[in-house]
Design a protein that fits this description.
This protein is mainly beta. It is built from 10 helices and 74 strands. The longest helix has 23 residues.
């Protein structure tokens, strides 16, 4: 397995995002009743209120029967004897951080004093309710001085609060101080809520203090005047595109134009909450100011025009709600909350947000066409009822069926849900002989409504199926996705709306986004069937301008600077979009278990190439696209108008992990497209790449220069192509490969197509052609296209295509000339693959250039890199002057090959070399020679293991200003050169170091190995080895073994060895010289046709040489390794634990080598090796105890033994 693992944020994906309800850094929990909006007592009474009843209950009658215009019943509050007057002015246990007008307290205005309110800034700077203690200080002011207490809580808030002693002369001034303390607290809040683009995301205590619902009209008027005068601020660079977007969003909702302003915490449907004493109705322009929380729980048909949230809008999770609006803008200080992970919307509750269809957008008001939907610039939490987005059927659904069977009842599915049974046959844009032309053929996906669910997992629906949804093999099945959620955002009357009238949802410039189990129905305004452009490229927009960026669910530039804090998008459904479904743009995000349907351009898109994060277990069903052209021919690069060809998952970049995703009824299931016609792609911080040193210390890098992070377990069916990868050119400047594994594509015209790219391992591809029809073109299972090189295909199954694997060797240079490089530079290898084709199993196969072999034929050399020349850094006339070139010979499991492989050239320019020098510094030998060290990375073309070797670079250039690390000679010991303690020219497995809490990269673990090969016969009969996935085993040992340089030293030995496919016996690599003077660490693998890799310090034990000479280095059986792997040997993992006696270790070894069906000579050899390794040394033990008897042959999982001497 390729060591490029899933690294971004998965471990934190289940946690609630910061700054949202239920989190200490977010706005406080409601201070009013949970189930009854106006109950002081937290009773869970859920009683039924008379129709038309909203607002605060009358203290005399216990009820208020007046309902505002346009509001229907949706509440659950009846007089239950516990209701009192509106309690928001007296309940401080969850207040929003403003000093309220409690008994004995004067309403604060302004001041510079102090109270305890400022202290809570360390959480989010909002909770300042304790500032109300100023009422006690009204006589002396002493209590008002309590700001010092606040200082202990909010570090920043407290520092300002401590100056407030002068404010404590009267109670009213003490109260005033609370507001100032709270303002400082907001700075503390910023520390926890700052988005990756630098925005303040925490709900801050406002500089303009809300007067509260009990305020006088004069106080309200004064508050409104101050609000209108507040300037809009941002921290983006002047003239930047993000500054323009920020300004455009807030210009839609100026505070001063508001018709309804919330003056204090309260219920949306309570007139007392609003400045004019009326609940917002049709055409209202609503403002929820900073410092105010408004709870929404009711069904309203009033069509709001705008809603600006600077504070908190919090939907009740146990009450049906409906809100209709044209535009909602959540400002950087605001929060939109519709359920949280700790308080999700109840499954029997529906919350509907309707984007009003108000006709064409007025471009005088909105020249960027940003309105008509939700633009969330602050924090967002949406959490509907948990629902599984998609499932595989247990049996093929056929024409006439009215139900489908699953292995179990899908989680959360209910009667009335809309489901889509994905078609398994799709013609798309293909020839219609009846009209003599190519036309679009609709997919065979079928939309149905659930009518019943049986306990055994059978789901019934409303209409019989019109098509067969059959698969070519019993282990392949179609998928069914569910597109109903109990939280929905949708376009009003979408069926009759023009494309330019539709709504969209954008989460902008803030990574404080957590959206789960919501439905995005018929949203998106960008039309991928037409040419689209950025808003600023139009000059003057009109209402129907096809502006890019208006999609169904759009993470818009939420930032990548904090890999530990991704946006979360889980369990959602996008149904219908003229452009894209889920858009991951310049952001760090995790998209998990989401579903898209009928998204014209693509279902899921990583837009600008710098995105990081993970896509896992998502499904994309049906994307029509503009044509069935291959991706590079169907885009408009001049306007960066990509993702148009009707694809499932579109990756403009390579740093988003893709696992277990499914695409159906699309042109291409998965597209990696790295071309940029108008500089629309964005470079990213090279440190985000787990092996950034391989990029030669470049501070930034591009999608073209990094390998695909992770591609594993994905599936395409009913499509033209399963997978397509294309770059602008094959070179990437390093030898870190992309490994794509366990990919399945069936009922497809073409399985996988790679062009203008290099350095890949395609492992375990299972590709099955669609059924052949007249007048259709059938392509290859795997097509290696123009300018492709250095590709290994392992364990592929290619079935039913016209041609199985096309080893095409066409090369086109920059001038359009073809085949201007030697054909042998393409370097194509196919190992252990099964190909059944109708015409040619292998097209363009050349036995003189290509290898089509079984793993039993692999030479299994030890990894090594030999450079042709010493590396010397001299001064150069320009920064772009090439100062040295990395060339040599790479040795790996496949054999020896020129380095770099294929079409690559690894040239190091002066500026790059000097940056490397500045990063590492330099040493000086006793002879006066300056040098630095360079780690050069290379990948094993079969195992996918990534190694590095450290090589000296002799520095003759000016080193002024460069860190001098001191004097250090390069010495030789045991045949190995050392720079200090660093071994030179020694293959070392590169391991990406991660932090346990976040899974993100925090540096590299470098471990020296000599990687000699231990013959399989030392451990087990080769006939009994079991095929297993590559696995990295790591163990650290401390022992007091003698050291050649310091006999008294205690040495920590860390072994990182990646046991991989097809690692076998060394046949031509240098034989190890073995003595007993040094510690030897060997990891032996009993699986995957594998021998065993072990790391030696300088020498190894002499008995090993004797043993190798006795047993030989060639596989004497001559049998194919696949058949040999049928009988497996499993061995337990070992770890370093409390040492046992050597006698106990020998006994354990005796048990370990009692292998069933093994040859006596092999067992004896293994015993001899164990005795030689363990003589006189402590023995390691198993995790579960001493090493036990070898498991039976038929155990499936092969494990490894780690020996330590």
């Amino acid at each position: 397995m390729n060591p490029l693992l899933l690294i971004f944020g998965l471990l934190g994906a289940g946690a609630a995002k910061s700054g949202l309800r239920g989190d200490s850094s977010g706005p406080p929990v409601r201070g009013i009743g949970r189930n009854d909006r106006n109950d002081i007592a937290p009773t869970d009474d859920d009683d039924t209120e008379p129709a038309g009843d909203f607002g605060a209950d009358d203290p005399a009658t216990g009820d208020d029967d007046s309902a505002p215009s346009g509001v229907s019943t949706g509440g659950t509050d009846t007089p239950d004897g516990t209701d009192t007057t509106t309690d928001t002015s007296t309940d401080t246990s969850g207040s929003t951080g403003k000093p309220t007008a409690d008994t004995g307290d004067t309403v604060p205005t302004s001041g510079s004093g102090d109270s305890t309110s400022g202290g809570t800034g360390s959480t989010d700077g909002t909770t300042g309710s304790t500032g109300d203690t100023g009422s006690t200080g009204g006589t002396t002011g002493s209590t008002g001085d309590a700001g010092s207490t606040g200082g202990t809580t909010g570090s920043t808030g407290g520092s300002t609060g401590s100056t407030g002693t002068t404010g404590g002369t009267t109670g009213s001034t003490g109260g005033t101080t609370g507001s100032t303390g709270g303002t400082t607290g907001s700075t503390g809040g910023t520390a926890t809520g700052t988005g990756s683009s630098g925005h303040t995301m925490g709900n801050t205590t406002p500089s303009v203090q809300p007067p509260g619902t009990g305020a006088s009209q004069a106080q309200i008027d004064n508050f409104l005047t101050q609000l209108a005068a507040q300037p809009e601020t941002h921290i983006h660079g002047t003239g930047s595109s993000m500054a323009g977007e920020h300004t455009a969003a807030l210009n839609l909702v100026p505070r001063g134009a508001s018709s309804h302003v919330a003056i204090g915490d309260g219920d949306w449907f309570d007139p007392a909450t609003w400045s004019g004493g009326q609940v917002p109705g049709d055409g209202a322009k609503v403002l929820i100011p900073e410092g105010v929380t408004v709870n929404y729980g009711g069904v309203s048909n009033a069509s709001l025009f705008t809603l600006r949230v600077d504070g908190v809008l919090d939907f009740e999770t146990n009450v049906d709600s409906k809100m209709v609006f044209d535009t909602v803008v959540v400002s950087p200080s605001g929060h939109l909350i519709i359920g949280t992970p700790t308080d999700p919307v109840d499954p029997n509750v529906d919350i509907d947000l309707i984007v009003a269809n108000n006709g064409p957008i007025d471009t005088n008001w909105d020249p960027m066409l940003l309105s008509r939907g939700i633009v969330a610039h602050g924090g967002t939490s949406i959490h509907g009822a948990v629902k599984d987005s998609h499932e595989k059927v247990a049996d093929d659904p056929l024409t006439g069926d009215t139900s489908v069977k699953f292995a179990g009842v899908p989680q959360g599915w209910e009667v009335g849900d809309t489901i889509v049974i994905a078609g398994t046959h799709y013609d798309g844009y293909s020839w219609d002989n009846s009209i003599g032309a190519v036309r679009f053929h609709p997919p065979e996906d079928e939309v149905r409504v659930i009518t019943g669910i049986d306990a055994d997992g059978r789901v019934h629906f409303n209409q019989p199926l019109a098509f067969d949804h059959d698969a070519p093999r019993t282990d392949l099945q179609t998928s069914v996705a569910n597109y109903t959620r109990n939280v929905s955002i949708e376009t009003e009357n979408a069926a009759s709306a023009e494309v330019y009238e539709r709504g969209h949802v954008m989460f902008m410039h803030s990574d404080n986004v957590d959206v789960r189990y919501a439905e995005f129905h018929e949203l998106g305004r960008t039309d991928k069937s037409q040419i689209s452009q950025s808003a600023d490229s139009f000059g003057q927009t009109s209402f129907d301008s096809n502006v890019q960026g208006r999609y169904a669910l759009h993470l818009h530039r939420t930032g990548t600077s904090d890999p530990n804090d991704p946006a979360i998008v889980t369990g959602n459904a996008v149904y219908g979009s003229p452009g894209w479904g889920y858009v991951h743009h310049d952001s760090n995000a995790i998209l998990d278990n989401n579903a898209s349907y009928d998204t014209f351009g693509a279902g899921f898109v990583a837009e600008t190439g710098n995105e990081i994060g993970a896509w896992n277990d998502n499904i994309a069903i049906f994307a029509q696209g503009v044509s069935w052209d291959i991706p590079k021919d169907g885009q408009h690069l001049s306007t960066f108008d990509t993702g148009k060809t009707g694809d499932g998952f579109w990756f403009q970049g390579r740093m988003v992990s893709s696992t277990d995703n499914i695409a159906a009824s699309v042109n291409t299931g998965f597209v990696y497209f790295h071309r940029d016609g108008n500089n629309g792609m964005i470079d990213f911080d090279a440190s985000l790449f787990p092996y950034s040193e391989a990029l030669l210390n470049n501070p930034t890098t591009t999608a073209d220069l990094t390998p695909i992070l992770t591609f594993d377990g994905n599936e395409t069916f009913a499509a033209k192509q399963g997978l397509h990868i294309v770059k602008s050119g094959p070179n990437q400047g390093h030898d870190v490969w992309s490994e794509l594994s366990d990919f399945t594509a069936w009922s497809v015209v073409s399985g996988a197509h790679l062009e203008y790219t290099s350095h890949y391992i395609l492992r375990d591809f299972d590709l099955v052609s669609r059924v052949h029809h007249p007048f259709t073109v059938y392509s290859n299972g795997i097509h290696l296209g123009t300018n492709a090189s250095d590709i290994t295909i392992i364990d592929a199954n290619v079935d039913g295509f016209k041609d199985g694997i096309d080893l095409n060797k066409t090369f086109v240079d920059g001038a359009g000339n073809t085949n201007t490089i030697p054909a042998d530079l393409h370097k194509f290898t196919v190992i252990d693959s099964t190909v059944i084709a109708t015409n040619n199993d292998y097209l363009n196969y050349d036995p003189a250039l290509d290898q089509v072999i079984s793993s039993s034929q692999l030479p299994n050399f030890a990894p090594d890199l030999q450079l042709d020349n010493q590396l010397v850094l001299n001064d150069a006339p320009t920064n772009t002057t090439v100062v040295f070139t990395l060339t040599g010979t790479k040795t790996d499991t496949l054999g020896q090959v020129k380095f770099p492989v294929g079409m690559e050239t690894f040239e190091v320019e002066y500026s790059v070399a000097m940056r490397m020098l500045a990063d590492k510094g330099y040493w000086t030998t006793s002879s006066g020679q300056n040098y630095t060290l360079l780690d050069i990375y290379f990948t094993d073309r079969v195992t996918g293991n990534l190694y590095f070797e450290t090589h000296p670079v002799y520095v003759n250039a000016n080193v002024g200003g460069i860190t001098h690390n001191g004097a250090q000679d390069i010495t030789t010991s045991g045949g190995t050169q050392f720079a200090g303690t660093t071994a030179l020219d020694v293959a070392t497995l590169a391991v990406p170091a991660t932090t346990a809490a976040t899974g993100t990269m925090s540096g590299m673990t470098h471990t020296q190995t000599h990687a000699a090969i231990v013959p399989e016969s030392w451990l087990a009969d080769p006939d009994t080895t079991t095929a297993v996935d590559t696995q990295t085993m790591t163990a650290t040992f401390s022992s007091t073994v003698p050291s050649t340089t310091d006999p008294a030293a205690t040495t920590d030995h860390t072994v990182h060895t990646d046991m991989a496919a097809d690692t076998g016996e060394a046949t031509q690599s240098p034989e190890p010289v073995v003595t007993e003077d040094d510690a030897v660490f060997a990891m032996m693998d009993a699986g995957d046709e594998a021998g065993s890799l072990f790391a030696e310090t300088e020498t190894t034990i002499a008995a090993a040489n004797d043993n190798e000479a006795e047993t030989g280095t060639e596989d004497e059986t001559g049998e194919d390794s696949e058949s040999a792997s049928e009988d497996g040997v499993e061995m337990p993992d070992l770890i370093a634990e409390t040492p046992t006696s050597s006698e106990a270790g020998e006994a354990a070894a005796d048990e370990a080598t009692e292998q069933p069906d093994g040859e006596d000579g092999d067992v004896e050899a293994a015993e001899d090796l164990w005795e030689a390794l363990t003589e006189g040394h402590d023995i390691i033990t198993c995790e579960s105890g001493p090493l036990a008897e070898m498991p039976e042959d038929d155990d499936e999982e092969a494990e490894s033994i780690l020996f330590a001497a």
